[in-house]
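Hi all, long-time lurker, first post. I run a small reading group and we've been trying to get comfortable going from sequence to structure in the token notation. Rather than ask abstract questions, I figured I'd post a concrete chain and ask someone more experienced to write out its structure so we can walk through it together at our next meeting. Sequence below, copied exactly:
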Amino acid sequence: MSDTGPKTEAGKMVVSQNLNPTAWTQNPNAVQAIEVAKRLRNTKHGLYASVPIICKSNGCPYKDSCQLHQMELAPHGEKCPIEIAAIEDLFDRYITALKIDRDDPGNTVDLIMVKEVVDLDIQMLRCDNKMAIDADFIIENTISVNEDGDAMTRSELHPAVEYKQKLLASKHKTLQLLNSTRKDKEGNKTTFVLDASQRAAELIKTQQDMKKLEDDEDEAEQAYYRRMAGNNTPTIIDVEPIGFDEK
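-- Answer (accepted) --
Happy to help. Here is the structure in token form:
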């Protein structure tokens, strides 16, 4: 027998090391940080921790369309409250609409795909904020400079608009994929239910057939006994007495 399999002592040690933060580093501070990061990832919105941008207050490219900045509530150096609120709202709406139980490990793939959709929504939100600032969908893009040093421009669609269109197309594809995976799950459940129902019907029919067979056998046995009992009953035959002539 191999002494390097997953069920051997050596194999168990390797697996335990892979699950232990010390397999990544021996630095105690780093090990502690990994443990904290794992706990954060297991929280309700742990998958979205890296999505919100860091608030730069006056240095934020979206400050002119940020209500918190206008109210002097922008938390410089912290994750953007606007995006955090949007993430939580969108996440709750999607899992409610799709009837996804976030506590069920079997829904991990669905939750990851919802995360992708929410991530795309946040990026589109940034595009909307950018367009709210720039306002014009058409920009004059410099394509060359003539001999006199004058810029030659061409009217083009705003990059934020083009980017949003790509994000929207990606979102639709992800939603279709998410919907198809859920249909596959429902299909498997339906097939399982139909198979179970069909199997139950077959079992009932088999039991009914067995019962009928047993009844037929009992009836045949009783008929046999009746015939046998009838054969053992003395039969009286009427005969004329034999007469003896006197000599």
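A couple of things your group might point at:
The radius of gyration is 41 Å.
The CA atoms of residues 171 and 196 lie 37 Å apart.
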